[in-house]
Write a sequence for this structure.
């Protein structure tokens, strides 16, 4: 009688993404989000609300930005630290986590996002994300078989 191999447990991984692929896809999304925020657009790709002027004859935040040579718009740029801190925090085969790696900046971004939601995936960001995913999927991939533990 001939010998027949019998596989009792195997896991076929059809998801073509590796952690490196997800890191790349996340990087594309980070670039798209930070570019949109620098243009002072919110998550609906609409112009962000105007900065509030000073009251009672005092200088306001827009005045301070103009004095530094910056545009008086809600673009999350004062020192540049906020958007420099936006990174892919972790990536695995199933997901990529985007966020701010500096805890202080994370709090500032959270407060700014409560004022008007700018950190998130807009329709244009989603199209950039879809293009990145399709580019990764077009690469030739073999199906991987993992042994079940």
């Amino acid at each position: 009688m001939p010998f027949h191999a019998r596989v009792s447990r195997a896991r076929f991984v059809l998801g073509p993404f590796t952690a490196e692929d997800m890191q790349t896809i996340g990087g594309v999304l980070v670039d798209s989000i930070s570019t949109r925020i620098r243009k002072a657009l919110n998550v609906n790709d609409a112009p962000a609300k105007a900065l509030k002027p000073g009251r009672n004859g005092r200088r306001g935040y827009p005045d301070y930005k103009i004095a530094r040579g910056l545009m008086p718009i809600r673009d999350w740029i004062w020192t540049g630290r906020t958007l420099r801190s936006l990174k892919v925090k972790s990536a695995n085969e199933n997901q990529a986590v985007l966020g701010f790696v500096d805890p202080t900046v994370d709090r500032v971004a959270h407060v700014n996002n409560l004022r008007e939601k700018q950190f998130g995936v807009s329709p244009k960001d989603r199209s950039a994300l879809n293009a990145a995913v399709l580019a990764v999927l077009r690469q030739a991939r073999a199906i991987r078989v993992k042994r079940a533990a």
Q: What stands out?
A: DSSP finds five helices and four strands in the chain.
